[in-house]
């Protein structure tokens, strides 16, 4: 059993109610407690009954932060393009400005925190597929479990209004107790996968060939084109069944699930966009791909050939150049190795160059996200022209695919991944997405095969066979 010891929560709530009455504004109380280890997946899973549709899950590749959130005490969302990064940041800052924070541990990823992201391209014509997600969409959870550095922390976020009284404290205690004592739920098997529909594969290949012709004589150097698989199940699939498999099979990835209004965006991406911890900033260049070998010899051979392949090295270098430029605008020191290394995932290996910087004082993570998104690993080069090309050429409504997804805490620390190797789960159906960087040397058939490999982690997690 998990128990939470002594609490200052009551006092915090009463003082927040007084402040709410004075200012006629809701006031957040956020309390952080250390607790005995709870498995974050079980916490997410046990929250199904009370908080289905209002949950999120996050794990980085090294498990430095595993965060699971239940309920929404505040939704911060904006549609449209203009200033969505700054609007979101301002609203968040206003929200936490008056917050009463009861936290003696000061660990990043605990206390007031919002989880969510930004759609890939708010100017792309919308199809309805992503109607449950806004162009900028963040949840502040009511209850959150954070495992950081192997220690578990439990955050309770309570909104106090001018109409509340001391009863609110009792209500929170009761609700919290129910959550912490919730029994582990069995993870249901995935329902049968009845249909896998490849959306317009021939047209996709034609688009690639057309683009390759264009790239040979154009200021455009690279454009990432993506495609979609639509899956149908025998009955509604549960996010935790997919999440459970991803946690088992994709340990080296960022693993995420983000529920909104009945849909769930879920995935296992190897790619960091940006992480900020104090003054340290981390990013990653990930582009250039090849499959895994059947045995270690052939795998090594494939890896070596990727490290020497001109087409893939160029595809990768565009990403390095752009990220270097964006980082140098906001960081005093930027360290980037001269040559890429291999990042090996279960089904694929990539060219990978890590990036570290020392943040210039006061640059918030959203400015970094704004500058970096989309890197040429997801958009292309030059950025603006590439995004316009994708908007014009791609049949797909990317929504949150290839977009920044992650968290920001009240001290400005946070991490955003690039949400590739991902899927939108909608009850009995799901859409999977995969794309690849097209350069002047690309070949439509081999890019098509590359996307097929990139579908595999999610297809497997959904109980499908390989294409
Ligand atoms: C766009 C995707 O992958 C990117 C990340 C790594 C390698 C890539 C590539 O080699 O094309 C892509 O740029 C995707 O998986 O949907
Ligand atoms: Mg590629």
Give your account of this protein's structure.
Residues 201-454 form the Chorismate-utilising enzyme C-terminal domain. GO terms for molecular function: isochorismate synthase activity; magnesium ion binding. Mg(2+) binds at residues 315, 450. Catalyzes the conversion of chorismate to isochorismate. With 467 residues, the chain is of the alpha+beta class. The chain has helices at 9-23, 40-46, 48-51, 84-97, 167-181, 201-215, 239-249, 296-308, 310-330, 365-372, 383-393, 444-461, and strands at residues 27-35, 55-59, 65-70, 74-78, 100-102, 113-118, 136-140, 143-148, 151-160, 193-198, 222-233, 254-260, 263-269, 272-277, 280-291, 331-335, 341-344, 348-359, 380-381, 404-409, 414-418, 422-426, 429-439. The strands form two sheets. Strands 1, 2, 3, 5, 8, 9, 10, 11, 12, 13, 19, 22 and 23 form a 13-stranded mixed sheet that branches. Helix 6 crosses helix 12. It is globular and about 70 Å long. The structure holds ligand ISC and magnesium ion (MG). Magnesium ion (MG) binds at residues 288-289, 315, 436-437, 450.
Overview in brief:
The protein is an alpha+beta fold and 467 residues long. The protein folds into 2 domains: 1-181, no CATH class; 193-462, Anthranilate synthase, CATH 3.60.120.10. The chain has helices at 9-23, 40-46, 48-51, 84-97, 167-181, 201-215, 239-249, 296-308, 310-330, 365-372, 383-393, 444-461, and strands at 27-35, 55-59, 65-70, 74-78, 100-102, 113-118, 136-140, 143-148, 151-160, 193-198, 222-233, 254-260, 263-269, 272-277, 280-291, 331-335, 341-344, 348-359, 380-381, 404-409, 414-418, 422-426, 429-439.
């Amino acid at each position: 059993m998990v128990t939470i010891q002594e609490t200052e929560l009551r006092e915090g709530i009463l003082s927040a109610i007084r402040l709410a009455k004075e200012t006629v504004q809701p006031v957040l109380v956020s309390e952080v407690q250390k607790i005995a280890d709870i498995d974050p997946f079980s916490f997410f899973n046990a929250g199904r009954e009370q908080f289905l549709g209002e949950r999120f899950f996050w794990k980085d590749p090294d498990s430095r932060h595993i965060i699971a959130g239940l309920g929404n005490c505040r939704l911060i969302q904006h549609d449209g393009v203009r200033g969505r990064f700054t609007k979101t940041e301002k609203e968040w800052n206003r929200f936490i400005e008056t917050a009463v924070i009861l936290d003696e541990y000061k660990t990043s990823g605990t206390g007031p925190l919002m989880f969510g992201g930004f759609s890939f391209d708010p100017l792309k014509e919308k199809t309805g597929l992503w109607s449950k997600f806004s162009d900028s969409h963040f949840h502040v959870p009511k209850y959150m479990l954070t495992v950081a550095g192997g220690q578990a922390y439990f955050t309770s976020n309570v909104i106090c209004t001018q109409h509340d009284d001391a009863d609110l404290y009792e209500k929170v205690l009761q609700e919290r107790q129910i959550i912490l004592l919730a029994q582990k739920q069995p993870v249901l098997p995935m329902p049968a996968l009845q249909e896998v529909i490849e959306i317009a594969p021939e047209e996709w290949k034609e688009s690639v060939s057309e683009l390759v012709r264009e790239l040979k004589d154009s200021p455009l150097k690279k454009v990432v084109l993506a495609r979609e698989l639509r899956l149908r199940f025998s009955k509604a699939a549960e996010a935790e069944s997919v999440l459970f498999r991803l946690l088992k099979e994709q340990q080296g990835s960022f693993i995420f699930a983000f529920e909104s209004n009945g849909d769930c965006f879920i995935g296992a991406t190897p790619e960091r966009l940006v992480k900020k911890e104090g003054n340290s900033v981390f990013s990653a260049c990930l582009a250039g791909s090849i499959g895994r070998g059947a045995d270690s010899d052939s795998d090594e051979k494939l890896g070596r050939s990727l490290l020497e392949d001109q087409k893939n090295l160029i595809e990768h270098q565009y990403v390095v150049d752009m990220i270097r430029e964006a980082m140098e605008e906001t960081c005093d020191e930027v360290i980037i190795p001269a040559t890429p290394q291999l990042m090996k995932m279960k089904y694929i290996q990539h060219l990978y160059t890590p990036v570290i910087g020392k943040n210039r004082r006061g640059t918030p993570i959203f400015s970094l996200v704004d500058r970096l998104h989309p890197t040429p690993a997801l958009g292309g080069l030059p950025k603006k022209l590439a995004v316009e090309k994708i908007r014009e050429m791609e049949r797909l409504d990317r929504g949150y695919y290839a977009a920044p997804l992650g968290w920001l805490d009240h001290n400005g620390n946070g991490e955003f991944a690039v949400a590739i190797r991902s899927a939108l789960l909608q009850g009995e159906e799901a859409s999977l997405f995969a794309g690849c960087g097209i350069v002047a040397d690309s070949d439509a058939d081999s890019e098509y095969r590359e996307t097929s490999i990139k579908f595999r982690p999610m297809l497997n997690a959904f109980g499908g066979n390989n294409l």
